[in-house]
Design a protein that fits this description.
Rossmann fold; 7-stranded mixed sheet; 6-stranded mixed sheet; globular
Length: 453
């Protein structure tokens, strides 16, 4: 049973029953593991079903625990017995929002953007865990197109994030409006998405904004400057490549499509050829097939089938990789002309492809959250780069909205109440906003309590 709702004094009421309610089952005071329930007397929907980020690890490289996880959030009817769940909505394809899909009851319909479905498929094929959504279970959400799920209206709104085709959700029922930000940022390539969102919701007030606050942290993290944009990063990468006369290794997630474009453009402008792996090639081909195949034909893109993917390529997915064979390149060819290439790299390649020893003077551009660097594989990688008399450089900007831009976003949305989610810095919300409502995990909140405000 959910804990009793504790309301601010100005929201206390004697009303016995309400129409629209929400519960943050997980995510009220942590980053990752997001899971939110919205309900009316006739309809229940769940927003995201994420795995908790227990350790710093790129989402696409994490593997599920064997068997059923012991820390599933207590959401009746989602993973087991309980009242009917009418729909599960996925904001984007990162594991801290989708990682529990394998344990969601198979009869529950799933709603997400086309791109989220594509990225879940790509991750299932190349990286695991197996989170691809069966076609007969999926409904595609189009941005700014409202659909009805029982007594609840849902509108997906495109937002810029490090996961391709991410969405925020506007949820409406019984005259109440709740906006779930999902994960987003304002400093990426698609700034027009935020303007379109503001315009769409401007018609009438939002009662509750469930606002992600990853960059409101208890302690500072190396997540990128507030003012460091994706274009700034592209320029920084280009300068780094231009000054280097040896092999450049690009370390980033292939599912971060904008980051892949940043590395490609920086590499091209530095006069080099960009080498992607099978995973990166598949992602790019799914999203922009004509563009990618044209670049392959012009030899501006090459594809390296690294050893980590060779087994999967031969056993499971030969048809998917067949279009990339004409653009393939092997490691000896790359090493013979190192100054011509920037190649997508992951730590597993150190042993599997390079035999534990990187080429002399290699430059590794690390473009993931700096917190991952405490993991053993990165410590070993940095030692190998030092041994090769190379250089390890962090070139990153966050996939999450900056602290400065959280203020801009909240001001533009102008909700009656801001509810922190996906954050360890709820106190920072309280410092910056007067209308913060702090809700604990598992605590039910009734939107009828703010009807008069």
């Amino acid at each position: 049973m959910s804990p009793k709702t504790v309301l601010p004094k100005n929201l206390e009421t004697d009303d016995a029953e309400s129409n629209m309610k929400f519960i943050i089952h997980r995510g009220a005071k942590q980053i990752g593991g997001s899971c939110v329930e919205i309900s009316t007397p006739t309809t229940r929907i769940i927003l995201d079903a994420g795995s908790p980020l227990e350790e710093p690890s790129p989402v696409e490289t994490r593997r599920p625990k064997r068997g059923r996880p012991t820390d599933l959030p207590n959401v009746p009817g989602l993973f087991g017995a309980g009242p009917k769940v009418d729909a599960l909505l996925l904001s984007h394809a990162h594991g801290d929002h989708t990682g529990l899909l394998p344990w969601v009851k198979p009869e529950i319909p799933i709603f997400c953007s086309k791109g989220t479905s594509q990225m879940l498929m790509a991750g299932s094929l190349f990286a695991g865990p197996k989170t691809e959504i069966p076609r007969d279970r999926q409904t595609t959400l189009e941005t700014r197109k409202t659909i009805n799920i029982g007594g609840i209206s849902v509108t997906g709104l495109s937002v810029d994030h490090s996961a391709y085709d991410s969405m925020a959700f506007l949820i409406e029922a019984d005259g109440k409006r709740l906006l779930y930000s999902g994960d987003l940022r304002l400093h990426g390539r698609k700034r027009g998405m935020a303007r379109a969102l503001y315009k769409f919701i401007a018609e009438k007030p939002v009662d509750i904004l469930l606002m992600e606050g990853t960059n409101f942290r208890k302690s500072p993290q190396a997540d990128g400057s507030d003012n460091f944009t994706e274009k700034d990063l592209e320029d920084t990468i280009c300068r780094a490549i231009k000054r280097w006369n040896h092999l450049v290794l690009a370390h980033f997630s292939p599912q971060h499509f904008d980051r892949m474009i940043s590395f490609f453009k920086a590499t091209r402008d530095a006069g080099r050829i960009f080498v992607v792996d099978a995973y990166g090639a598949f992602v790019w081909d799914v999203i922009r097939r004509r563009e990618f195949r044209d670049l392959m034909a012009k030899k501006q893109i090459r594809v390296y089938f690294n050893q980590s993917f060779q087994h999967s390529w031969r056993k499971n997915i030969p048809k998917l990789n067949r279009p990339f064979l004409a653009a393939s390149i092997d490691l000896p060819a790359i090493l013979a002309e190192q100054e011509r290439y920037t190649m997508l790299f992951r730590p597993s390649m150190l042993d599997l492809d390079f035999g534990g020893q990187l080429p002399k003077h290699a430059l590794c551009l690390h473009s993931l959250w700096g917190g991952y660097l405490v993991k053993p594989e990165y410590i070993i990688l940095k030692a190998a780069i030092t041994s090769a008399e190379g250089e390890f450089s962090e070139c990153h900007t966050s996939g999450h909205i900056s602290a400065e831009d959280i203020e801009k976003f909240v001001k533009a949305v102008n909700p009656r109440y801001v509810v922190p989610i996906h954050t360890t810095g709820r106190s920072e919300f309280q410092k910056r906003f007067k209308n913060v409502l702090v809700v604990e995990d598992g605590q039910e909140f009734d939107l009828d309590h703010i009807a008069a405000l």
